[in-house]
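Bumping my old thread because nobody answered last time. Still need a sequence for this structure:
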């Protein structure tokens, strides 16, 4: 594990991943994976103890991926536009928030029907959507806290307050300062 600053990308990173975005996973110097979802899929193909991919249901993974891609396609641009408007105090914040809320409402409805976004069981969908929803909730914390999305807030808080979340969100010393790799795994 190498923690970096995006405004000071090490040459070693740019050599293996010229696009220069994070995350990047290098597997034994032979495989480079540059997208979060692809990294999740690779990791779960190696070890999926909670069956997040629903291995016994061949149609499930394509359905999950379609759901994730559609959410990212619609929600991410809306969220990024809303975040910029909020940051620069633009006067169209409510209109831009409404674009995000269209997707939040869909998730709220799904979470009113079952414990997780895709079904009654946790799946890749939950793990893939979590970073986006965490980021959105942080754009306007007070508004989100007071919003009517009770199921969505409970779902998000369940992850954020979990011991596993604290473990995976551990901060590492910047790699550029010491050039020491941080190992992690089944410890």
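Sorry it took so long. Here it is:
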């Amino acid at each position: 594990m190498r923690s970096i600053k995006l405004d000071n990308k090490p040459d070693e990173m740019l050599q293996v991943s010229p696009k220069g975005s994070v995350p990047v996973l290098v597997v034994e110097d032979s495989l480079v994976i540059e997208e979060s979802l692809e990294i999740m899929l690779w990791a779960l193909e190696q070890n999926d103890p909670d069956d997040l991919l629903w291995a016994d249901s061949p149609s499930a993974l394509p359905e999950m991926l379609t759901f994730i891609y559609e959410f990212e396609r619609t929600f991410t641009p809306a969220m990024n536009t809303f975040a910029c408007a909020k940051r620069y105090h633009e006067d169209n914040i409510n209109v831009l928030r409404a674009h995000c809320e269209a997707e939040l409402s869909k998730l709220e409805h799904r979470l009113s029907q079952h414990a997780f976004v895709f079904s009654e069981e946790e799946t890749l969908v939950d793990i893939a959507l979590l970073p986006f929803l965490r980021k959105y909730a942080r754009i306007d914390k007070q508004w989100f806290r007071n919003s009517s999305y009770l199921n969505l807030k409970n779902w998000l808080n369940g992850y954020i307050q979990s011991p596993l979340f604290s473990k995976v969100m551990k901060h590492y010393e910047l790699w550029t300062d010491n050039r020491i790799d941080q190992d992690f795994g089944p410890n």
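Strands lie at 25-27, 31-33. Let me know if any region looks off to you.
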